């Protein structure tokens, strides 16, 4: 169990800190649970976390694809297959002196994490490439389909217009092959 103010065991990712507060919680039908939030009693440079079944699998300060997770989690979701997605701030300079933008990270209970897409990446909108200038609140991750893919839906801004984006992701065993050239399955313009 996880309870605010309880010490986080080192085996569960603790760094001499405790559970402080919780932001997003999800549980799937298999009983896998996701909790995001902050730790207390340690450094504020690594207090934001994602935990699966009470084990911290990603933490502020971790490096993924040359970017440093740096800041708050804006939204998180968990699918029935135990795969999670989180909108999380990142810094493109691992020393902390770069830009502070948002990205979507993927992971599972084993701690495998992947940068899916980040602000500044190119997205396909109606056949033309545009720059994703903002990832906004709103994120959902679908279950793995029969062909091994699953979909991630999110809201973002490109060309000054808020849109809903859908990304098809290969089966979890091929997360490591997923690069920044991710193919967008479709884009819908938000209705006013």
String of helices and strands: EEEEEEEEEEEEEE
Indicate the low-confidence ranges by residue numbers: 174-192
Strands, count: 14
Largest sheet properties = 5 strands, antiparallel
Give me the side-by-side strand order of the main sheet.
5-6-7-8-9
Mean of the pLDDT scores?
A: 84
> What is the strand content?
over 45%
**Whole-Å distance between the termini?**
43 Å
Cα radius of gyration in angstroms: 16 Å
Helix content: under 10%
Counting copies of identical and different chains, the oligomeric state is: single chain
Please summarize what this structure is.
The chain is mostly beta strands. Helix content is 0%, strand content 55%. 31% of the residues are buried.
Features:
single chain, mainly beta, five-stranded antiparallel beta sheet, 14 strands, 55% strand, globular, disordered C terminus
What does this structure look like?
By secondary structure, the protein is mostly beta strands. The protein is about 0% helix and about 55% strand. The protein is built from no helices and 14 strands. The strands form three sheets. A five-stranded antiparallel sheet has the order 5-6-7-8-9, with no helix packed on it. A five-stranded antiparallel sheet has the order 10-11-12-13-14, with no helix packed on it. Strand 6 (about 65-80) and strand 7 (about 85-90) form a beta hairpin.
